[in-house]
Amino acid sequence: MSNFIKMNLRPAVVLCLLAANAFAAPRTINPGAVWPDDRGKHIQAHGGGVIKVEDTYYWFGEDRSRDNERDRRFVSCYSSRDLAQWKFRNQVLKLANVESLQPGWVLERPKVFYNARTQKYVMYMHLDGALPGEGKGYKFARVGLATCDHVEGDYSYVKSFRPLGHEGRDIGQFIDDDGTAYLIFEDRPFGFRIAKLSGDYLAIEKEICLVPAHLEGGAIVHYQGLYYAIGSALTGWSANPNKYATAKSLEGPWSEFKDIAHPNANTYGSQSTMLLKVVGSTKTTVIFMGDIWKPRTQWDSRYLWMPLEIGDGKLWLPEPREWTLDIKTGEAVIAK
Ligand code: GAL
Fold first, then answer.
1. pLDDT tens for each residue of 293-315
2. In b/e form, how buried is each residue of 181-214, taking b as 16+ CB within 10 angstroms?
3. Closest to 89 (Cα-Cα) out of 80, 77, 74, 71
4. Which of 108, 136, 267 to mutate to test the pocket of ligand 1 (most atoms within 8 A of CB)?
5. How far apart are CA 235 and CA 109, in angstroms?
6. Is the whole model's pTM more than 0.70, yes or no?
7. Nearest 5 degrees, angle CA 220-CA 129-CA 171?
8. Which residue in 103, 124, 185, 208 has a CA-CA distance of 20 to 30 Å to 171?
């Protein structure tokens, strides 16, 4: 082949490949299956949350890799443009036992917010365990805070605190359409609280609502003028029928809680962690993000992500099946 042809063929081949990629069919999301990242390793982002910064989605969660150092707790970050294929970015936090808790302490449900004003990434997490002499169990009940100038770490631990003076157990993250950021936290004696973050996200500014329901894995989505809140009952790692309520404003009043699926299905073995809204050119899809916990082999815990049937005050989790999401149009197609 002449050099002339070679030189002109290469850009053409590259263009063809780019074009093929642009029109490639969306990748399948397979609820409950091993979900490999770009390295072929099962994603470690349990109890996680997803944020979108420009065109990229970032998924943060508990990294429970089997070979993690035993004295630390880990948070990992992955990125994606289509919510199906995830690139491992980093173990963004490798937290030592900074609060001097007894062995067996936990860092759970990390959630990262991007503050456009300060250009900082702010991570909230649930820190728990017991201080020496306190017995065992989840007694600490605090929120931990860590920050970073870059999405992929390393995050610096700032402090832990009781949110607005209350117990803080499972946390959830909600960013409203106007960009306001909220932390949801379970306050065991009372229910779950929705609280607004301060302008720099480094503190909790005020309580918006106490929903007097005992729910973990709390999550909220704002869809067609209504707020939908979901959560699970307090059954630890075992699945239970997750429930939802609606309200016209975050302050409430909230409706009674109803099942998100047939109660016998036990949320198909999963527990809520987030409701992710994808606004496309023709459709808005709300994804239920849940964890299928495997308490004895935590590194193998799975994810149950499904597009919800939602609208007019109703929310329903369809039976899990493989599905695809067209990230441009927002259209989700569940396999027959
Ligand atoms: C669940 C909670 C998990 C973890 C687990 C421990 O209820 O949602 O994040 O704390 O209990 O038993």
1. 999 999 999 999 999 999 999 99
2. bbbbbbbbeebbbbbbbeeebeebeeebbebebb
3. 77
4. 108
5. 16
6. yes
7. 10
8. 103
